[in-house]
Amino acid sequence: LQEIHAFKRMDSWAQVSRLDFGHISKVTRTPQGGIRVDAALTRTGVLVYSDAAGKEIREYRPPSEVFNTDSLATLDDAPVTDFHPPEPVTPTNFRKYAAGAVRSGSVKTDAGNKVVGAVVIQDAGLIAAVEKRDRTEVSCGYTCDLDPSSGTTSDGERYDRIQRNIRYNHVAIVPKGRAGAEISLRLD
Asked: What is the pTM of this model?
């Protein structure tokens, strides 16, 4: 997926919209017939994007930003969608795009580099796709400020810029995500 667009400039930083990916886990039924699934929602580290010209851009998501309490708070009750919508989810278009929500109070950091939580899916079509394993990975849609600083992580991975002030809009359920197979629904 490509960089969506810059929203505003702040000094030499740009605020952009991002789509990143994770995995799905064990499924339980809700009393209403939906499903509740534990998931690795996102992670720290370097993610690769493409700019409008197709050039590879490597963006670092440091633990201090990904695990920031203000950032994590935006995942509580975030809408869950079937694929990414073409625009941010808002009260105006919620009925059009929402298929569930991240369970409030379930979002936390794990012992490693991930953010985990429970997603509740109420849409019959998306439930069927998850149960058939057609969609098992998770992709967060969010905005962030891009710090143009480049460098190398403590693990020796090169990056071109740093994501700061991450604010989540939605969590999409997709077949394959950018952050790798470990960021997914935990179905087993």
From this structure: 0.84
